[in-house]
Amino acid sequence: MVAKVKIDAEVCEVICNDEEKVSRVKQEMNDITGLELIFKALSDATRIKIAYALTIEEELCVCDVATIIGCSMATASHHLRLLKNIGLAKFRKEGKLVYYSLDDLHVKQLIQIAYIHHQEGRPNQ
């Protein structure tokens, strides 16, 4: 009996390396060290909701974030602190209130572009 070999249509069937491209790209790979931390932080549903809320309103206090996403202030504070520690958010204190905002325009754009891409991929409703 002859065994049938399944060929994956998404994999090259021959070995072909463009040495120039491979070398150029490999040199650039060192520059992305740590980049995965941004996506890891945003892969949590609560943190992406917080980040998205901060694209709608430039600045929100911890208690408002907690109300918006439906969690305790401790939970909101924990997630906001993580976003701050990774460099995605910043905070300022005003009296007894702590206000958070996205760190810069690039973070806001990253969230907005991901949202637009997400909306484009949805079936018509």
Task: Describe the model.
- The chain has 125 residues and is mainly alpha-helical.
- The chain has a domain at 45-120: Orthogonal Bundle (Arc Repressor Mutant, subunit A), CATH 1.10.10.
- Helix content is 54%, strand content 11%.
- The protein contains 6 helices and 3 strands; from the N terminus they run αααβααββα.
- Helix 3 crosses helix 5 and helix 4 (62-69) crosses helix 5 (73-85).
- The longest helix has 16 residues, at 105-120.
- The chain starts with 18 loop residues before the first helix and ends in a 5-residue tail after the last helix.
- The mean pLDDT is 91.
CATH fold annotation of the domain at 45-120: Arc Repressor Mutant, subunit A
β-strand amount: 5-15%
What does the overall shape look like?
elongated
- Could you state the CATH homologous superfamily of the domain at 45-120? Winged helix-like DNA-binding domain superfamily/Winged helix DNA-binding domain
**Widest sheet: strand ordering:** 1-3-2
Q: Would you count the extended β strands for me?
A: 3
Structural class: mainly alpha
Top-tier CATH class of the domain at 45-120: Mainly Alpha
Q: How many helical stretches?
A: 6
How far apart the termini lie comes to 51 Å
> How would you name the oligomeric state of the polypeptide chains in this document?
single chain
CATH architecture of the domain at 45-120: Orthogonal Bundle
Rg estimate, integer Å: 21 Å
> Taking all residues together, what is the mean pLDDT?
91
